[in-house]
């Protein structure tokens, strides 16, 4: 039995991963903590049907005070047990149609996409130390790959690209720093998904991306520590365009 915490779970990928984790047997997933910064009717409905397996927790990754309060709430719900898996999913992607990174959106995006991940990881670290799996998955994007930057040059989301690059580096630093304690930290790109963030022009239905992402997270072991993972979607290994979902690690 494993416990999971997912940030940014009120919609999109976070919500779908929450839903799919609850569909797994209790012997595999016994508790899911889904965080949201505002009221989330969909999550509340899932929680009511979960027989206590889902706990909805208020948490805004851009506000340290809410993170610390959320950690206390999760600790109380775990009744002395540890947290097994943390999925840092919350993120933001502002558009800059003119291609210029304004100071305002870079600052705000960095707080959510990088500092927020750091703050959440720090706050829940004592619980992760008590957990059995000690696994942290940071949801990133191939848009953060420096090597692949030229093929994504047309995308008007420069602040998002910069912060995902920084998130990848943060992930590696955590992986190096805590591997001797048995931790597994990795970054994973869930693909371009049909969500509010990704738009309906995206490659994959969110249900497909969520399943492929969870398959990678659940299957990850110590050999994935510090890696940048890509999902595998059968039939999309050699699709047209910059995104191939072949399961091979993207270049940094």
Automatic annotation (TrEMBL):
One of its GO terms (molecular function) is oxidoreductase activity, acting on the CH-OH group of donors, NAD or NADP as acceptor. InterPro entries: NAD(P)-bd_dom_sf, SDR_enzymes, SDR_fam. It comes from the Eukaryota. Gene3D superfamilies: NAD(P)-binding Rossmann-like Domain. PANTHER family: SHORT CHAIN DEHYDROGENASE, SHORT-CHAIN DEHYDROGENASE/REDUCTASE SDR. This is C-factor. It comes from Lachnellula hyalina. The gene is csgA.
